[in-house]
Recover the amino acids of this structure.
DNA sequence: ATATGAAACTTTAAGCTTGAAATAATTCAC
DNA sequence: GTGAATTATTTCAAGCTTAAAGTTTCATAT
């Protein structure tokens, strides 16, 4: 999967395979770097950051199922991450009157402050790690990725 | 991190942030789909597939450290995955005469056959999932990703 | 020869991840 | 209104992942 150098395959369809391999290697490389910095600088993790980022954009809160759908991870996964964030005082669950199966999850005041700091650093890191990509290329690449995704997404 | 729809941020540097988010969402979406199919069709996992793919390209075998470097994962990680592949008879470790710290890891006959089958299906899936990307765009995107990566890689 | 350090690998603890099974609450058909 | 599906969430087992600590082996400088 994460193939790299070596006997460059050729033939029909190989271009897409190569694209996928590059895509995967690029995101894994960046992810690894972010994970390391989040740990070193803020003693946190990428999954926690993802959850907080989602909640930061939704001051009114999110349901667990909204979170898992948005983050593209399983339900049970989110449960665990939120549990940990709650125990750290960064996130709170609020039972709802309407539907007692659900609970609104939101950042605490402390969580909001903490996230703002981390997010600023994060944006700087991305700027650094993708620094060699021109703003122009960035926009072009983004466009390609967006359209490709919307094409096959929502199949099943 | 995996932000998506909603209040499109703007400002300097935001284009690269947006690019990163798209990149991550694209690869996670495809990865999830591949993982699911590997499980359903072949009862295996993405990490096992990755290791087997690496070994398939190296009939003479690879050291554990080669594997972990190539796959961009930690040493301990590879140990576990290889352990499982060995217990399934798909991979073999061979002690070396020269250096008794190391062992050459390679696919067994059974592993080679199994991988060939899975790899064929895998390539088809990629063709399907990235089908809407023209071969031309695929090559262009690949080029962009390659150059961006080689730029900041090998920093530390 | 022998310490000293480096290298290759494994082990461990903690956390992330999934898919499936279990719980609980709601909705809907009758 | 009762029972049957549906929905939201949690729990669970198995496996993946990392960073750090530990083991064994090798290289090298005395």
């Amino acid at each position: 999967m994460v193939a790299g150098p070596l006997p460059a395959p050729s033939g029909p369809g190989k271009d897409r395979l190569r694209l996928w391999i590059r895509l995967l290697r690029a995101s894994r490389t960046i992810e690894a770097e972010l994970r390391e910095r989040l740990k070193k600088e803020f003693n946190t993790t990428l999954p926690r950051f993802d959850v907080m980022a989602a909640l930061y954009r939704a001051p009114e809160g999110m349901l667990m199922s909204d979170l898992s759908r948005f983050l593209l991870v399983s339900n049970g996964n989110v449960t665990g991450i939120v549990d940990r964030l709650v125990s750290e005082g960064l996130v709170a669950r609020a039972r709802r009157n309407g539907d007692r199966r659900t609970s609104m999850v939101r950042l605490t005041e402390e969580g909001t402050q903490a996230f703002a700091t981390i997010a600023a650093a994060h944006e700087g890191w991305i700027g650094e790690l993708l620094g060699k990509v021109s703003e122009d290329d960035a926009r072009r690449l983004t466009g390609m990725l967006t359209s490709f995704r919307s094409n096959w997404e929502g199949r099943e």
